[in-house]
Amino acid sequence: MSFMAPMLRLYNTLSGAKEAFAPIDPAQVRMYACGPTVYDAAHIGNARPIIVFDLLFRLLRHLYGPAHVTYARNVTDVDDKINARAAERGISIRELTDGTLAQFHRDIRDLGVLGPEDVNDPGAPPRFIEPRATDHIAEMRTMIDALVAGGHAYVAEGHVLFDVPAMPEYGRLSKRPLDEMEAGARVEVAPYKRSPLDFVLWKPSKPGEPSWPSPAGIAEPGRPGWHIECSAMSAKHLGKTFDIHAGGIDLIFPHHENEVAQSRCCFGTPVMANVWLHNGFLQVEGEKMSKSLGNFITIRDVLNDWPGEVVRLTMLKTHYRQPIDWTLRGLEESSRVLDRWYNAAGDEPAAETAPGTVVEALCDDLNTPAAINALHALTDDGSTLRAGANLFGLLARTRSAREQDQVAASGVDVPAVEALIAERKAARAAKDWAASDRARDALAAMGVSVKDNKDGTSTWTVAG
Ligand code: AMP
Ligand code: ZN
Known about the structure:
The protein has 464 residues and is an alpha/beta fold. The protein has 17 helices and 15 strands. Adenosine monophosphate binds next to helix 1 and strand 10.
């Protein structure tokens, strides 16, 4: 473990400034990220927080040591969209969420995202936790009871509502003063709310929806509101106050603001998490991604056309707080960069220590564009380049292994390729240029390009 590592600085939404990161307990750094709602295949925008905060997890493990970082990324498996989708498909909610979650795991594994199987050691406490909302209903109920008992929430018509005006610091994270929010609140408000700003902690389940015994003495069964799950799961797995809480920029309000309100009022703490990180949004070819515009792309759609590493590098080329414009050109460019890096790294193993230039750039609020420039500067030192790229979750394979994977993925008929190469060689030896060109064209048609080496041998690769 190296406490002498370069200082990590992170832009904190809570303070509105870039700050030196000082963990509560350097022997156990704790981070939480809001994960997917598993009702449908994840889209490429959803991949952004997953990849960005995976990089942060890798960096923290590098700085503090793998045994000293705990990452919880939840799964939201209770939600209106889930209920609607399960009903539509005539399957149970659990069947829908299990299937969608399994697909999500396959998607992000191909993006080089670390999971429990990569970091958890059976003999030690887990370092990667993926809590599911439906496994934490009892913890949510306990929190809701405490909020009601403490005068922070009230029961009305089978609902439990958080009493927003009773929390003077509500709005601190999203920088929305309470009085302004009150003035701007919508006119049409559920009649059981004391203030239009109050939000749901618990609500009655409609017929056919999943339900659990209710808190706060409510006789009818019900289900949790959206925000309480993250307060309950983060407290259970990371503690009442922890270091880093992350998610997409759209989650600042209301989701994260409400998480803060619930956790702080329940536990009487001054903060929920010390540092709040938010990634910018992704748009596609200059437009907001939406089903109606026909530019809605799932992670799997992209992975069908591009290797996961290309997708990952494309995501990390833009600084995480900036918006990303997801383009074909960007993917093509990343593909060329990876070809260059793989050629430079060859089959050399990674150097033992990651290059300081790359680590320093990442320590500056995950400055991935600068870190990528630092990697470009290492192309004459393959093993250091590989060590730096590994920290990014890239260049996990040797060049030879990658080439084999490319051949396998392309489905080319290897004996046919070798036969054509031999034919071309014989034609060249006989100075039969027409026959040599025919063999080359046939290879090109299979997506194979041949390179003639100085020593008279030739090597071949497939595109992609
Ligand atoms: P959702 O499934 O909508 O709850 O989103 C899961 C995560 O993906 C959240 O952290 C969102 O902020 C994030 N997210 C959703 N859409 C985008 C997008 N277009 N660009 C970047 N992040 C997104
Ligand atoms: Zn959350």
